[in-house]
């Protein structure tokens, strides 16, 4: 099992542990690069089918790892439709849905929505859906920018409804992975981790 280090004084694990550095141990590798690529190809096809093409389609990645996932989806949709959908970014940096938060609410930072979202079909893209609080913050932020026609959610991994704290569900799911609260799903992407994989991590037994 391989250790994974997180250095962030603003993050706790399972709402119990706060430290400058938390070392997590990988229990299992549930997706590799090929499976991630296949899942994203399927999601791109489902998004196009559900929205009957890309007219008015607007992909919005949630930083961090939702952004490269949304960019890959946009490229795959372009391969299907001959044109990329509109692309934007919402930045929620002090909170990740597969980790814990230092406060009651996520913190929203810079948002890059260069085109009007009014009457657009928004697809929010994130790596992991857990409690739903990140998505709630993203939805609140979107509403400050206009009135979309509809908002859908695409995630690479859904940890299951039993962990949800809000009535939020994904419309497009790469893989559903039932997990314990003590476990953490980590999506690793080339842009940030020099590897493409999804693993289940836990705190080491000391």
Task: Please describe what this structure looks like.
Strands 7-6-5-8-9-10 form a six-stranded mixed β-sheet, with helices on both faces. Strands 1-4-12-11 form a four-stranded antiparallel β-sheet. It is an alpha/beta fold. The protein is globular, with a radius of gyration of 17 Å. A hairpin with a 3-residue loop joins strand 2 (12-13) and strand 3 (17-18). 24% of the residues lie in helices and 33% in strands. The protein has helices at 33-50, 66-81, 133-143, 190-193; strands at residues 3-7, 12-13, 17-18, 21-31, 57-63, 86-91, 111-112, 121-129, 150-158, 172-176, 184-188, 197-202. The protein has one domain: Rossmann fold, CATH 3.40.50.2020.
What's the short version?
This protein has 4 helices and 12 strands. With about 210 residues, the chain is α/β, with parallel strands linked by helices.
Features:
206 residues; 33% strand; 12 strands; six-stranded mixed sheet; alpha/beta; Rossmann fold; 4 helices; four-stranded antiparallel sheet
Compute the CA-based radius of gyration. 17 Å
Query: What name is given to the CATH topology?
Result: Rossmann fold
Give the DSSP E fraction (strand runs of 2 or more residues): 25-35%
Give me the secondary-structure category.
Answer: alpha/beta
Tell me about the largest β-sheet. 6 strands, mixed
Task: Give the count of structural domains.
Answer: 1
Order of helices and strands: EEEEHEHEEEHEEEHE
- The residue fraction in helices comes out at 10-25%
**From the coordinates shown, what is the CATH architecture?**
3-Layer(aba) Sandwich
What ranges have pLDDT less than 50 throughout 5 or more consecutive residues?
1-21, 94-104
Overall average pLDDT: 82
Strand order of the largest sheet: 7-6-5-8-9-10
- Total DSSP E strands: 12
Cα-to-Cα separation, first versus last residue? 15 Å
Shape: globular
CATH C-level name: Alpha Beta
By DSSP (H or I, 4+ residues per run), the number of helices equals 4
């Amino acid at each position: 099992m391989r250790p994974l280090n997180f250095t962030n004084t603003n993050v706790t694990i399972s709402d119990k542990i706060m430290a400058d550095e938390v070392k997590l141990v990988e229990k299992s590798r549930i997706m590799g690069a090929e499976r991630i690529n296949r899942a994203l190809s399927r999601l791109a096809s489902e998004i196009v089918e559900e929205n009957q093409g890309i007219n008015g389609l607007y992909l919005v990645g949630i930083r961090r790892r939702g952004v490269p996932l949304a960019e890959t989806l946009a490229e795959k949709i372009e391969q299907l439709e001959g044109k990329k959908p509109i692309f934007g970014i919402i930045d929620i940096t002090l909170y990740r849905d597969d980790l814990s938060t230092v406060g009651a609410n996520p913190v929203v930072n810079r948002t890059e929505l260069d085109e009007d979202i009014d009457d657009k079909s928004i697809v929010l893209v994130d790596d992991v859906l857990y409690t739903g609080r990140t998505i709630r913050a993203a939805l609140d932020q979107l509403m400050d920018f206009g009135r979309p026609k509809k908002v859908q959610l695409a995630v690479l991994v859904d940890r299951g409804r039993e962990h949800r704290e809000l009535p939020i569900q994904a419309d497009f799911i790469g893989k559903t992975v039932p997990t314990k609260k003590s476990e953490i799903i980590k999506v690793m992407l080339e842009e940030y981790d020099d590897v493409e994989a999804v693993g289940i991590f836990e705190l080491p037994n000391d």
